[in-house]
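Fold this complex.
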Amino acid sequence: MNPGRDEAEAARRLRDTISTQFGRSLHIRTLDTGSCAVCEQEIRLLTAPHYDLHRLGFFFTPAPRHADLLLVTGPMIRAFDVAARKTYEAMPGPKVVVATGACALGGVYPKDPFVHGNAGEVLPVDVWIPGCPPSPLALLHGLGVAVGRLAEMTPGLTFIADSAAGGGEA
Amino acid sequence: MTPTHLPIPASLSRAAATSEQLVERLNALGGLEVRDGGATRGTVTVRTLGETLEAATHVVAGAPGARLADMFAGGSGPTGSGVSPGDRVSPRASRAADNGGDAPTLRLVWALESGYLLTETEIHGDRYPALSDIAPAAFVEECEIYEQFGIRPATGKPLNRLMLPPHAGPDFPRMRHRPARPPEEVHAPHTVGGQAFEFPFGPVRQVGVESLYYGLVTSGEEVVDVYLFTWHKHRGLEWRLRGTTPREGLFFAERAEGLSAVAVGWAVAAAAEAALGSTPPPAAARTRAVALELERLYNHAAAMAALCQATGLTVGQSAAEIALERLLRVNAASFGHRYLFGVIEPGGASRAPDAEVLRRDLPAAYGELRRAADALLSTNSFVDRLEACGILTAEQARRLGLVGPVARATGMATDSRLNAGGPPDGNPYAGHLVTAVTADGGDALARFQVMLGEAAESVRLIGEFLDAGTEAKSAPLPPGGGRGLGWAESSRGEVLAWVALDQDGRITRARLRPGSVRNWRGFDDACRSQNVFTDIPIIEASFWLTAAGLAR
Amino acid sequence: MNPLDILYGAAGAWLAAAVAGLLAGSWRPGLRACCGLSALAGAAAAAAGGWSLVYGNTPVVAPGPATIAGGPLQLQMTSLAGVFVALLGIVAVALALYVPRYHEPSRGTGVYLAACNLALLACLAVLAAGGMVTFLVAWETMSLACYLIILRHPRSGETARGAFWFLALSEIGFLLIVAAFVILSAKTHATELDMMAARGHLVPGGWRAAAYLLALAGFGFKAGLVPLHVWLPEAHPVAPADGSAFLSGVVVKLGAYGIVLFAFRLVPVAGPWPGLVTMGAGAASAAIGILYALAERDIKRFLAYSTIENTGIIVTAFGAAMVFRAYHQLALSAFLLIAGLYHVANHGCYKTLLFLEAGVVEHATGTRDMDRLGGLVHRLPRSAVIAFVGTLGIAALPPLNGFVSEWLIFQGLFQGFRTGSHLTAILIVLAAATLGLTGGLAIYAFVRGFGIPFLGMPRTRQAAAARETGQPVAGPALLAVACVALAVGAPVMLAALSRTARTVTGTSLGPLLLPGKLTVIPAHADFSAFSPTYLTIFLVAACAVPVLVYLAGRPRAGSVSVPVWDGGMVSFRPRMQYSAMTFSAPTRVTFDALYRPSVSVRRASDDDPAGRSGPVHYEAQVTPVFERYLYRPVVRAVEWLADVIRPLQSGDVNLYLLYVFLVILLAYLLGAV
Amino acid sequence: MPLWFARGLRRGVVTTRYPARPDESAAWLPTPPAFRSRQLTRDVADRMVAVCPATALRRRDDTLIFDVGACTACGRCAETAPDAVAPSGEFELAATARSALIKEIPIRGGGR
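Structure:
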């Protein structure tokens, strides 16, 4: 684990990035593509008092129209393709896709007729969070990484649709 | 809330009599009790003829206290024709094996007052008697068996779409490959006629919930019917388990319904143990029980948080989530995993709880839960929303074969921990007083109260098991093949698993039936019972089911 | 030269059109000629009607040796009738434009068109009648011609049933009207309407009331006042579209004409209560009509119930005018009369329009069931725009004409306090409140009436296959123009109507209008004022504001357009749209006591609660309260009576001879006494 | 509601300070294994590859390829070879490139 000072520095930078670039509100939409319901439980706990995601400026939104970040869980079931793509397309740019948990990273299910086996097969994933399930702490860390990625994608914060497409090749 | 104490010894003797009587009556119909290697261990197995299947089902369904727990089909014949010693099948080859030529065997698992009764019937042709007319609970399984095996009830009633996605072609993997008939011929037409319309909801729904499609058919005010689609969560787990060893298979089984990982894992492990005639060491069995009770405990806390969220009581949600997080941390501190994955292994348990941590932290965490619950029960705005919401009657629960808190909230004292079938050594609950907490409202409040009562029981049982001693120990599985039935009581109700192992100890057919599979069927009826839209999240939270468990 | 002279021409043209129709049979050019003549007649009638608004009443004439039912044919053109004649003319032109495309020439088309033209002629005769006998003969002719119109497709049982309801209730109404006329005629010793009016003071109070109530009931059958309305929802759906348009646009209005005729011309004031009764009947009809409309899926039945609502509004205005007259609030009385007449004109235009469009929809899709339509705005774009104008009008939304007349009626009713009687004031305010409820429900009903068939996705294959080519557009378009003109030209229209009101009530509403400023003041300058013209201009201009804002603030950078977020479903399906009945479910629940719905749910799982969710079917049938609890007992009684007297008709000659003998004996005895 | 307000005050703050400060609950989390290069032999590596249910391990010659992303931290490799594997204790693993999660561990424990 890194020394505390670096941590504090990292946290400060994270908060700064969120507050300056996203008006203190980065909105997250979750997408279950066939998880076993445990990743969902951990994501729900992010808003629980112990982790309180809101203190960092993150919020959950049920509408992908308002979302900046897509948190994908599960091995990307083939029957879910359409919904996954629709959700991604419904999000305005700039947007990041965060693959969450071992299933979404290709760990549990191999590629077969049921599943793509990897969130990256369908969506342009920007950040990968390992873990089965990733604990809320790991999720917090991953969201911090995602914010950095989002900030990279939007130099000078020009909200141009092309920049989303530019960020989509990962 | 009326706790029903069912001392195990008494029920044991009574149930044994029932089971014997049933077997006698089935034998009169041409049934044959199987005791040799072809039997499913862990249960009484009766082979019935295809011609008398209907009559046999009538006999068992009519027996007092009998409940259809599961129905499934298998590719191999009842005498183990699919398994021959020395015929080593590679996992992949076995998985892809086309069993289309074999006559599938239909197995019905009946839960009696104590112990399970399994009937098996070889089905020739593609039709079998419509058992859902006798035991309505069989309907889901009829749909599933059609999708996986291509055989269907003889009445030709339309079936629901369950797991096969609408676009699944003939080469979409199934348990038994057989070109699919045009689904519109078989699947119930999904239409809404007259003056109602379908309010579409999902599959991508609120944040942090599973993907699930509800079609709420409504006349504008009342909920007329609910269409429930989960095929976009079907991961083909039973298909995946073929050709794996029980240990490999357990890894997937735990992920069938991650919030019941211990219960599903235990059921599969117990089934494999039963198939091979081994029993886990008693201390390891107690380890399993501690893990199971911890799992039930955190699920009840999570259900409480979900209920608060559904009723819009954010402070209550926070209080419940504090309790939930503390319980999960107790799990992590004692077993090394917040959701207790990897605790169960075939033959025993791979990890032992840190008894000291449990004794120290669990009471505090449970105290948090208890205080939050007390505060909730004295909050009128919360209790009023739960009262008379999503009512199910005991009759409905019995007909639909509901399990777990949903069934117990209607007054049915069904709890598979009370079921003393199987080897007594492998049952850590034998010798402990297990209380089936019941309530008689049948509504969301009753379910909530049942959950609270069970949470208290879980804490007590954990203490007793720790006092009796726990250990991470496994009895190695003996070589050979066989069939076994295993079960465990998850927070959602009874989990059943049935496995057939070949001589190499590899799974040729595994059946997983998490509690969610049964209870989602009650969800439709609960939604219809004169509820309005805004009650549905409350009903969903009070059932606390997973789509993952239903779709597997 | 006076308006009557033009009307002779119109009548001649209609007669010629009727003959042409009869001769043409199913020969297309002949039918076209028939329609041409009819349009010509309509234009003439419209001109004459408009003129007579300005001209005032003509003297009664009895042209030549023509006699009718043994009496002289007496004709007169009044300013009051002018409003209706003008409406009749416009509707006739619209129908003539509509018919050639709507009716595919076939067996019976010629007869049907002949009946239509005869009915138009009869309506004109009713309005131009200067004497009692002329009026009654014309009235009965009109009823019979309408009966023929409804019976266009006599094969279906529903048609026969609808036509029979119409005829039966018409005849009962006719008897009541005859009775009313006979009372007046007997007491005033006159048959000319002018004479009757002039000698009105000779009628004793009780007879006045009796005559008025008989007339109210008699004309109420035609106007569709609840509970005398049952023929409307039965007859309208089965008649051809132009036939139902004519029934709703003109025939029903003649009922209102009759009520005004008796209330303001023939029967002198007999205290406030006849007015209150009229007003109450109107308000009740308005509310019940719109509530039943909300429970209807059949477009034409829906429109028929809406007609009941609108005549209710009109009759409420007339009733309130009577009440004010009884309290000597002559200005307000005249004002409400004007408002009511204005609503007559408005409703005649937009309801005719909507029925014609209902015909277009039925033609294009083969169904009138709203729950089988949907998405027609993309398939019938011109019809949709025209229907939208009509819908805005009938929903009384500014800037269209319905708003103007309803606003005027409300302004009149709100001044109920000027009667000086607390009870009356409260009753008038109650009527206003009922109309307020009605207005709100009407908007709701027409959001549904337009939205369900025209917006969204097609619910059936037939709706998806609808095409506009070959569908009549000109007729409804003319009426849409009329609707807009009635809205924008409201001050002019009101100026004309105030002349009518002066000829009827003798009160001049000098300061009512400020034509220079295009502003309307409801009778008393201290109450309120508004300008429909400016309102229209303002609203149209206001619509431009968002467009301008968008154009000014349009993002400079490129934008991406993606489909509507649907929760990740594979696709939206038509079954996921509001249906007509679910849209109105809140009223169905609120007014449960009126509807007494009987619900039937069919799930595939009904035989066993096994969670089988196959096709779901849900029906909520509204109990037809009036038919079941009012008419059915009457029908049963009549049938019972028929059973009882059947033995009289035994067919035995000896028995008949006995009857003759008994009658003669009775005559002798009576003569002896 | 006052009841809940009082409860909240009495309950105090439970919120973690992470990421500003480390959180002590992280110590109990299951974490992917860290491999001791010196204790690894090809044989040990093969046995670990065979038991890994998540197919997170592969061996290429004298390199053990470990996909942290696929790892479920089930601990079966540690059961197989307790000397060669220890929990890494590392949970902050999120990466912006999938390849960054794939580690190559040289096998140095002799090439039997």
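Chains C and D do not touch (no CB pair under 8 Å).
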